[in-house]
Amino acid sequence: MRIVLFGPPGAGKGTQAGLLSEKYGAAHISTGDILREAVANGTEVGLLAKSYMEKGELVPDEVVIAIARAKLESIGEQGFLLDGFPRTIAQAQSLDAALKDIAKPLEAVVNLKVDNDELVRRLSGRRVCPACGEPYHVDSKKSAIEGKCDKCGGDLVHRADDQPEAIMNRLNVYDKQTSPLLGYYEQSGILKNIQAAGDIKEVFRTIVAALGQ
Ligand code: AP5
Known about the structure:
Layout lengths: L1 E5 L6 H12 L2 E4 H11 L2 H12 L5 H14 L5 E4 L5 H13 L6 E6 L2 H9 L1 E3 L6 E3 L26 H15 L2 H8 L2 E5 L4 H12 L2
The protein binds BIS(adenosine)-5'-pentaphosphate.
């Protein structure tokens, strides 16, 4: 399985990648999670990425491409689900080139379609576990114990970029810089559009059916 989960902030990429990873045993690779870990650890990459991420801007291509390539190399032969990468044409071209080198092209790009009002509702109410990356929602996906992660017991947080101003900027950045990738993948014939406004399990079933696996 070599799949990209695509869609605007809050579309459910991380949520669905987690479920698909459990079902198929593929590695869930989230550039957002890798960057947040770098920020938390105060690494050189983290210090550079922090100001971009807080404002909801994209981190420069060369930084993110290097991170994604290193991660893909580290998983070896295992299948993968890319979540939040690629986000620009330059990133997509770099990914294609890396996969061409090993003769393992992408199988599908799953585009999660959700309208903007619902995206804002999801992002405003999201809580995440910084330790394992598991996403929750104050209404639609509550943890069993309030404020604690069901998977690892970590303390849930409200992401800095899930504040109103950063959410609006992220949605604009998606429209301007990332949505043009839909045309790129449509041309290559691997784009699968999924109506992702339903509940989490329903969306999951639709993706599994679309993948035909
Ligand atoms: P990143 O972490 O990738 O954020 P994002 O793309 O903005 O996506 P989100 O994590 O916000 O949303 P999601 O689609 O995963 O939704 P989720 O499943 O959590 O990136 C953060 C930042 O890092 C970027 O802004 C940028 O600065 C930088 N970055 C990362 N990658 C980069 C790259 N390639 N290039 C440059 N910069 C990069 O769900 C959201 C909420 O909705 C949750 O609360 C969830 O419980 C709920 N929910 C999910 N599905 C449903 C449903 N079906 N029904 C109801 N609620 C649902």
